[in-house]
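Lab notes, practical 5.
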Amino acid sequence: MLLADYQKFVSRKRCGDYDAATILIDIHKALDLANLTDRQRQAIELVYFGELTQAEAGERMGITQQKAEAHASRAVEKIADIYYYWASHNEGYTIGGRING
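Output from the prediction step:
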C-alpha cells in the first residue's frame, strides 16, 4: 500500500510533512535491502514512482505487460518481506494490526 501511495507521500513531503518524509526514507531503505533484480527495480520505479501502467512500463522495458507485472509483483513481495522483518523485530511497523516498537 505504501508504494501505491508513493506520489501522495512525495506531495505531502513537499508541504513539510515530516512523517511523509520518514515514510519515503523507509521505502527507499526497504528497496535497497530487498535485493531486487535490475528488472524488478525498474518495474517498481516505472509503475509506482513514474506512475505508468504496467503495459506502459512493459513497453518501456521492452517486455510484455505480463512480465512487467510479474517483476513488479515479485518486487512488492520482497519489499513487504523487509517491512515484516522490521515489524517482527519491533522496528515501528505493525503486523495484523498489532503495534510494535
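Observations recorded by the TA: The domain at 6-92 is CATH 1.10.10.10 (Arc Repressor Mutant, subunit A). Residues 65-88 form the longest helix (24 residues).
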